[in-house]
Amino acid sequence: MTHTVFKPKLLALLLTASGLLSACGGGGGSASAIPTTNVVSSGTISGLGSIIVNGIRYETVGANVLDADDGSTAITTPLRIGMTVSVEQNGTDPITLRPIAGKILVQSGIHGVASYAGNSLTVAGLPVTTDTSTILLDANGVVTSLAALNNLNVEVYGLPQADGSFLATLIEAEVGPHAVQVVGTVQSINTGTQTLVLGTSATPITIDYTSITPPTGLVAGAVVVVKSSATTTANTYAANSLQIRSATASTYTSYASNYSGTTRVASERNELYGAVSDKASTSSGGNVTGCTFRIQGIQVQASSAALCSSIANGTYVEAKGTLSNGVLNATKIEFEGSTSNGYSDDWNDSDSDGLHHRSLSTLNTASELQANRSFEIYGELSCSALNVGCTLTRGAVIYTADMSTARWDDYQSIVNGYVEAKGYLTGNTFKVIKIEAKDRRYGSGHGDDD
Length: 450
Hints:
This protein has 450 residues and is mainly beta. Among the domains are: 266-363, CATH 2.40.50.140; 374-437, CATH 2.40.50. Helices cover 8% and strands 44% of the residues. It is built from five helices and 32 strands. The strands form five sheets. Strands 1, 2, 3, 4, 5, 6, 20, 21, 22, 23, 24, 25 and 26 form a 13-stranded mixed beta sheet that branches. It has a five-stranded mixed beta barrel with strand order 7-8-9-12-11. The longest helix is centred in the first third of the chain and has 13 residues, at 8-20.
């Protein structure tokens, strides 16, 4: 994946849009302000089941997901929390009232070999910093560690800093060697030798751009993306292309300040919408204290034994909390219908079990279900014939897929394969509203969060 060039007028629009957008409600159907058609919003993805960017949840099935650098190369792997993107809205869903993403431009990061030693990380020679919210994934999309990524080819999404460092929001391993791409803030420029320096004073790298025509506005302080033909780490790279991503690193300060969930509550900055898989109880001293499970491939930790007894694989859940070391520590969970065990914690967490809980209202009609239980999943479709006898497999959960009224995006109808589907649960059946074929671009298994 590669990155876009932000022209000055577009950059101003992106910054203005990200500052003006207000929150959109979650799957419970409550919604505040929704951005207008064709608004462009740029930021870091904070939630899945659709995607959430700058506190707005966008529906993504049918969106043109493209490489931001050239605006035309299709990106078919799942969108993940931590990716930096620009979203162009194309209308509003008439039933869910959620904004529809017409175009999603994925802004790629640093490509290169990771070197991790003594708690210091560099990728392609550039210094990369991480914190507990950075998501680390192996080549199969499974949460891993920095030590396990050492000496592997990786892609690093994140936020260039003014001091030349790069704050990673997502690091994922890549299969096989790839050409080096570096992203960072220009620390100094020598127009005579046509070289510039990226990185920090302690860990600098030099870019030689003598073989290309530099873009207008190339000055110290600008954030650039540089492609090279090198596949190994070096102190100097010859640029095959050099583009200005932003006139200043403050663009990415705005990304960080607008990183939030739809409620804009600090303890709910990350959100996951979808069905539970891989549920397991957690215990202490022989007593069940809570549970872990996965939504959209991300592990969730819930601290209430009573609430966890009401959750099963396949249950539709909206979990809100904060990510730490690849795990969402849930502070609020919402799910459909009444519970069978009598658990009825109120909105203010009266029993102090650490979780707010809400049972969403009972719904009766297909329109109500679609409006309030709609989410999007990546999974394997298997049908006995086109739209007949279908199942959708996501992680450990197999859904019966009702395709009777499904609309195939771009008429890419398939019987078996990897898809992204929008729909809602009725019992154990996933009612598919809209569906599109996807590819696994990096080999078997990679690209599926599970």
